[in-house]
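From: lab user (bench 3)
To: helpdesk
Subject: output format question, protein + iron/sulfur cluster

Hello, I'm new to running complex predictions and I'm not sure whether the block I got back is the full result or only part of it. Here's what I submitted:
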Amino acid sequence: MPGRRGCLIRIPANRQPPVTSVSPKPASDPARPGTERPNLLGMTPGELGEALDSHFLGRGQPAYRARQTARWVHAGDARSIAAMTDLPLAERNALERSFRLEEPELDTVSVSTDGTAKHLWRLRGGEVVESVLIPAPGRLTLCISSQAGCALACRFCATGWSGFGRQLSAAEIAGQYRASARWAGEHGMGSVSNVVFMGMGEPLANRKAVFPALTILNSGYGLGARRITVSTVGVIPGIEALAERREQFRLALSLHAPVSELRRELIPLEKRYPLDQLINTLEAFNRSGGRRITFEYTMIRGVNDDLALLPPLTGLARRVQAFVNLIPFNPIPYVDWRPSHRNRVQAYRQGLEEAGVPVAVREPRGRDIDAACGQLRAARYPGRRSAHPVEDASPADLPQPGEGPQ
Ligand code: SF4
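Helpdesk reply: Thanks, we reran it on our side. This is the complete output you should expect:
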């Protein structure tokens, strides 16, 4: 395609994000191996009901004790089992001996002048992850993390540069929601209306935790499936698995380049799951039940904003009836890239509109608080960045479901 080569960017080997290999982590508290009590926050409503029924029946308690406890879990205001004040003290103590109610611990909160609030959460073992509350007229969106760090090493992403820490558990994912939603309520931001899995990590590379977390958010906390968006850089088996779920969860594809050659430069996973296969998978996702797909397109000056890329972008969007979000690049410390010029962003928007593609320009939020994914973590914990960057991502670098604690 004319002009395409001009969009390619070569990053010197010493300016590549680190790609970390992943080794399985223990599933229990390293300090007390084999003694872990299940976290109530990581159970789907079905699992929670069964576990609590069995617990209270075994103690000769009435059946409503299980429902009482589940209400405390999903109402979100009790920070501990001890705070479930309508349970008798003896029952709280007994529950505490068999279960735990543990949210991620708040490390830092930063509030932007635009109202965006970013939380840094500390997990067991010392890892930290981010979530972001993003207010807008009529809605409050929560962006949550599914992994501590990320192994996929996308060039434009601060998390990719920080390397992979570990998988999050379902409890740690749902716990971000629970703690953030309570914080939002306590600080006058209202109720969380939407959740997007666009924080740290590739959610479809942690399906063992993300899929139950989707169930917990949807049928435990009552968030409509259409208000929950899973964002991926293109893990095809994960998209296929999401399509099989009966709930209408939404899917966002981090596209960022409409041609494979350029996409490989930005997203190493493109080598494993190339664009043509990915688009075929999205077409099948569409056929599975009328769920809207969004393309995320971060616009980087001189990298992926050549006008020659507009027709292929339009073509892909039309093929899968995607909504396109154009997002001017939010600079990160690791590369010298800048956001596209405003008039280039508008040219893209106009071109997409004229082709009948629904499109919006999303201004990055919270720039003054390092709200781009992974930036706050990197700023607070610069030592977490890998000292051994390697050339590229390989299939072995993709974390598999099941790695990490529960
Ligand atoms: S964009 Fe997503 S998949 Fe890519 S490195 Fe960042 S967190 Fe990982």
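A quick orientation on your result: The two ends are 48 Å apart (CA to CA). Let us know if anything else is unclear.
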